[in-house]
Amino acid sequence: MNEHLYRWRNRQLREHVAVIDGHLAPTKILKQATYLNVFLKKWLTANIWIYEDRIVYVGDDLPEHIPSSTEVINCQGQYLVPGYVEPHAHPFQLYNPHSLAEYALKTGTTTLVNDNLMWLLLLNQKKAFSLLDEMQNIPVSMFWWARFSSQSELREEAEFIGDEEVLKWLNHEAVIQGGELTNWPDILQEDERGLYWMQETKRLRKVVEGHFPGASRKTLTKMKLLGADGDHESISGDELYRRLELGYYAAIRNSSIRPDLRKILQDLKEMDLNVWDYVLYTTDGSTPSFYEEGIINKCIEIAIEEGVPVEDAYAMATINPATYFSLEHRLGSIAPGRVAHINFLKSKEDPTPVSVLAKGEWAVKDGVTSSLTSSIDWNEFNLTKMTLDWELESDELRFSMPIGMEMVNDVIMKPYPIKSEADTNMLARSQNEAYVMLIDRDGEWRVSTFLKGFTKRLGGLVSSYSNTGDIILIGKSKRDMSLAFKRMQELGGGIVLAHAGEIIFELPLEIKGVMTDAPMEKLIEQEKEMKKILQDFGYAHSDPVYTLLFLSSTHLPYIRITPVGIMDVMKKDILFPAIMR
After folding, report:
1. 350 in helix, strand or coil?
2. What fold does the segment set 82-332 form as a domain?
3. What is the residue extent of each domain of the chain?
4. Which of 124, 322, 466, 558 could disulfide-link to 328, CB 3.0 to 4.6 Å?
5. Residue 501 φ then ψ, to 5°
6. Residue 494 · residue 488 · CB < 8 Å
7. Left if phi > 0, otherwise alpha if psi is -120 to 50, otherwise beta: which for 475?
8. pLDDT digits (tens, 9 = 90+) for 184-240
9. Closest CA to 192 of 226, 151, 156
10. SS3 497
11. Three-state secondary structure string covering 385-441
């Protein structure tokens, strides 16, 4: 069944009951299965009947007559758990939603709740909704959330996202959440439009997810009063406990830039937390190589290693997120009426499955991956290569700002006074800074300054991958930056590195310059290669992909390069406006 939320038709529901009455045979029988009952938090043994994509029976009985068409699987020696849920995915970190889902399935993550940001940036609403429908043909359960802000400072924010568009997204059956509230300070103060959208989300009986890094008890209380239900920004046990105490669902991150899960669990040991029903996991849109060993399965593994009761460790990946989204009647458990997402484990303590059932079909069987997912014709949705109908002129590579951005870590930038000569073609290697420019992908404006801490000697990097979909140039050599730009333009989008007059790395992003259709396994190796090259050239942090993504993100302090100019985020001041080309 490919309808959103798996609303089975009356005819199908009658068939499901007919299986119990013996008038129809199950599609599959999982015989003598030791499975986790997430409601009792116990391991039980039962026979599990599956009809097409739905679990129809769990108990002691077997059908009186089992035809040869029914696949019978002896499950003795294995442990069965529900398919895992990733409740907070950003499925465009070089990969795309389809390739991420296909890869996630291999290690047991069978449900993804996805950010809709890129569809807002790249597609009209009709095309976006058609794509959401198309993605129901894959065996992963795909849901979405509706953003209330761009997470940057766009030149035409009101045109980017307005009342009608937000409300249509919220009313879509595949959209099960509003948020995440990266614009919560505005909503807390005077953003009546954002508050209205929150109330509409609640009226539709959908949840509102916060984004409250470092929030005090008073702030968390205020946002709860305004309608927030969950938050994933805890970076310590104290912060997580505070959210639970106030009635939030709290997701713990294990992500490429915030691998906080293990430390938070260690903190919680000292707090004697023994109720885990409101705790979830998320990998929060990690970059490809972070997923080398899987997605939510790794979170469960860490939780078990840190002493979380095994049954709770699995519940945090299954029934807890399903309950948070009011989908517990469809997902998150092995019980009658649920979608047949089931992971088969060799031991209770090893959450990486040896076999995976997704919507009742084998995605992985005895370690062998099946080809269940259909391909997406991106051209059908106008998600083609990026085309630039303008050229970057050499005299536009001007960098004369008195204030630059200094990297504190992968994503936090602080202002610093610039002392370098701005009119040189190449910056001195002795200086740990580079030129940086953000250019409108339509060629209408540009913003430039200096970036300290990204590279010590790389000639040029150009990326069409960014939070706003615009083009980033970074480097110490204007000639190499121009060379990398031209190659990126030839590729139709991507990340290109140039040095000493040569292209030394390229990663094509053939889906509008922000995503690739390459398999995740290949992309992981490409990203690892790029990271090594950048580190060899002086990148001192761990996640250059996120550095590129968040250069223009205004939900982070302190200074950002945005489509409207260089911005002091805390004061909401434009220090230096963008220059029209």
Report:
1. strand
2. TIM Barrel (3.20.20)
3. 82-332, 403-580
4. 322
5. 80, 10
6. yes
7. left
8. 999 999 899 999 999 999 999 999 999 999 999 999 999 999 999 999 999 999 999
9. 226
10. strand
11. CCCCCCCCCHHHCCCCCCEEEEECCCCCEEEEECCCCCCCCECCCCCCEEEEEEECC
